[in-house]
Amino acid sequence: MKQGISKLHKALFSAENRLNTFYVLAFSPLIWMAYYYIGWLPSLLIPLYGFLFLILKKHKLSLGEEANSKERLLGLFVVVSSFFVYFVVSPLFPGAVFYGDINYAVYIIGLFLVFFERHTLKEAFSSVFLIVAASSAPLVSRWVEPYFTPLLPYFTILIVSIARAMGMNATIPSSGPSNVVILHTLKGTSPMQFVWACFGFESASVFATLLVIILLEEPGSAKTKMLWSVVGFVGTFLTNVVRLEFLLLVEYFYGGNVLARAEAHSFSGYVLFFSWVIVFLYLFSRREAISRKIRSIRRRL
To answer: Does residue 65 come out as left (phi exceeding 0), alpha (psi in the -120 to 50 range) or beta?
Structure first.
């Protein structure tokens, strides 16, 4: 019996196998989640990003010391408990699933305690913070909704003005709610109402979470980080505007009441938002070269 436990310990925690085993176990729940979310795979993107942040920590984790027996027992307890987090979060998040993002975040913390000394747990911050904060975006959105809703008429005017500039026949009725738009499409008149979700606050919250992690992980001056933060949020806002204008165009030319379909909003939002995140991360990684080009242009002017 002891010999079997010793072999198992060597197979899991030996210097050459420990890190590989950790990553295999960290990835395993994503397979289950992919199966569970088979009807809506974009929901898997946040935990997948969390796992990718763990990959970026591979070198630092390879230097981490092995957990002692007490830390390992605590870690096993946390790993097992992660499967029951649903019963804690479901009262706060009515849309929570049995094994979702929060479960995965708790599971990651448990794995760290199982495989590494507790001081190494700080390397889990990026992944856990991303998963928890991004998953909490809908709840935060509900909290701030009453404060930003008065701005909705101005946002509606912006969207309608852009639509008109693009050649669409869109009007805001002189009487009635100021967030209602009448789109005169090629297939008839289509009334629609812009609501709080149209602001794109949830995508901005997710981007803010990514931004916090990026700015904490990357070196740079406060001025540079502030500048790129402004660029990031402006880009996120414009991405949401592009999403709405795209849906208006589809409605204008093809009809079908596209703007009333939640799946159309969600799918286009996911595609455009994560495309923007990839573009932003690329530009941010090239920030020094971009700064040099800007300085060169200024000197020529």
So the answer is: beta
- Report the distance separating Cα 228 and Cα 233, nearest Å: 9
Let me know: does 66 contact 115? Beta carbons within 8 Å: yes
pLDDT digits (tens, 9 = 90+) for 221-268: 777 788 888 888 899 899 989 988 888 887 777 766 655 555 666 677
Helix, strand, or coil (residue 1): coil
Q: 10 Å Cβ neighbour count for 184?
A: 13
Exposed (0-12), middle (13-18) or buried (19+): which is 179, by Cβ within 10 Å? buried
Dihedral (CA of 113, 114, 120, 123) sign: negative
> Distance between the two ends of the chain, CA-based, in angstroms?
78
pTM of the entire predicted model: 0.71
Which residues have C-beta within 8 Å of that of residue 67, sequence separation ≥ 6?
Answer: 75, 113, 114, 115, 116, 117, 118
Token reading at 40 = 């809506």
